[in-house]
Amino acid sequence: MATLLRLSNAVELADWEVEITQIRAQGAGGQNVNKVASAVHLRFDINRSSLPPFYKERLLALSDHHITKDGVIVIKAQSFRTYELNRQDALDRLQVLIKDAVKIQKKRRPTRPTRSSQRKRVDKKTQRGKTKALRGKVM
Known about the structure:
This protein has a single domain (3-102), classed as Double Stranded RNA Binding Domain. The chain is 35% helix and 19% strand. It contains 3 helices and 5 strands, in the order E-E-E-E-H-E-H-H. The strands form 2 sheets. It has a 3-stranded antiparallel sheet, with helices on one face. It has a two-stranded antiparallel ribbon with strand order 1-2. Residues 24-40 form the Prokaryotic-type class I peptide chain release factors domain. It holds the Pfam family RF-1. GO terms for molecular function: peptidyl-tRNA hydrolase activity; ribosome binding; translation release factor activity.
């Protein structure tokens, strides 16, 4: 089993889990754009993969436009001119997507503004009001 993508020390994806096909790139062309299939279409089925259940749950819970209702991640890479660079770009984007889904966010603790910062804010407001008051008509 050849390793295609290493996500952590314990988790890696085999090459049979990721389906990569060559397609023609979209957009404004030039030479070779209609002849060379240098873009990449990557498909990764979350449910069929060998990922641990925790990874699968977090990925399926994501509301990302790359993930279909059936639980398949679809990534299209066409930024580069060569197939190899586009393939690597698609794999890198898949890796980032999976790692971000598994990352546990710190819980935010609400904080209160300090007394001095509150006083400074009010002082700035009154100063600004005085400046604006000076713009009125002169009697």
